Amino acid sequence: MKLSSPLPADPPPGPTRPDFWKSPLRGPWLSSFLGSLMLPFIVICAVTGFLSQVAYGENSLLPEGGFGFSLVPFDWPTGWAMLYALTQGLHVTSGVIAIPLLIAKLWSVMPKLFEWPPVRSASHLLERLSLALLVGGALFVFFTGLLNIQLYYPWNFSFVPSHYYAAIVFLAALALHVTLKYTTVRRSFGEQGVVRPLKYGLKQTVPEPYREDSTTSPEPAAPTVSRRAMLGTVGGVSVGLGLMMVGQTSVAEPLRQLALLAPRGREYGDGPNDFQVNKTADAVGVTPEMTGPGWRLRLSGSRQASLSREQLLAMPQHTYDLPIACVEGWSTTQTWTGVRLRDLAEAAGAAGAGQVLVKSLQEAGSFNEAILSSEQIDDEKSLLALRVNGADISMDHGFPARVMVPALPGVHNTKWVSSMEFQS
Ligand SMILES: Nc1nc2c(c(=O)[nH]1)N[C@H]1C(S)=C(S)[C@@H](COP(=O)(O)O)O[C@H]1N2
Ligand SMILES: [Mo]
Which residue range(s) make up the domain with 139? Predict the structure, then answer.
């Protein structure tokens, strides 16, 4: 169906004219290559993103998994303590690696944004709308993700649901895009070879054959850089950023010095409490009076109990190496000592409880409580930690007591615990 348009048939001067675009590098091969390079990282990022949603479990901000049913029909396991450090490290690393590729890819298809006439037919309109969702969704998801790992939560909307729902829009538009572009990718790889253009230096760099309705320029300028150099630069930036992200994780301590963007620094002292602090006690209004001798852990289940730190230290103590694995991608493994959560459940007359609501002395803020599942309560490594690396936990790491549970997202390792309500 043709749409009659009030716009002039000839494009106005500027980027709507095909001859405005001069780069000899643009063309279906370049866009296909960048898209194919990006795709595996996006798949890893998407899968680990949905896994993070599973790991949030009952704490999820989404109604029942997002759509009234759970996308993944299993509970987050506790069996391997490093699991969330791994999946979330992969999520953040693959997402960050994809960003330079995304920018290059958007550059490669830029002329399409200015197509003239802007709408040619109903199907053209639909195609452009799906591209708006694809590009808008991608920019939103990557931008919020990046800000979240660097600046925490600087916006008024809630990060998790907006990142999550935008990701679904983005991935749906991407699935459509990959389907629609499959033949173009096959054709250009068939014509140009998948990697053949990478063999050419500047002298042998020629424009891709001009094709109307593509991103090739009708009047290409002489190349100033080869495709190999351009893609090498973009890829180099991606690899560099990826290493910086991996350097923040406890699986790659030797790379720590590369974590130039780590919001919490790279250098720590040698003391038992010298490792990353998310929020300090000061920052959230937890004072030494609140955590002093008057502090009690209040337990409730089929009966109430109130325990001082001395009483907790008199209970059987257990020591495990457990990571704090932040949603921001960083992680750090330390040696924690404390009381098993299942022993506390028993003290509250709630052995085999279905879940526990853990609350912090911290009054405001989104991380001042967390819900743990029965599996998380029952794991022998699940602790209410009182000590770390042989010393009392410092104020900033959650004194007098904090939750340490294997494979738990960092957010739920509640610090400055004040009460635990065991529920059936
Ligand atoms: N009460 C409380 N507990 C909290 C937080 C918080 O802000 N308040 N931050 C959480 C987050 S997001 C992480 S990653 C870990 C960080 O623990 P650390 O500061 O000891 O490294 O604590 C978690 N526990
Ligand atoms: Mo975190």
Answer: 18-258
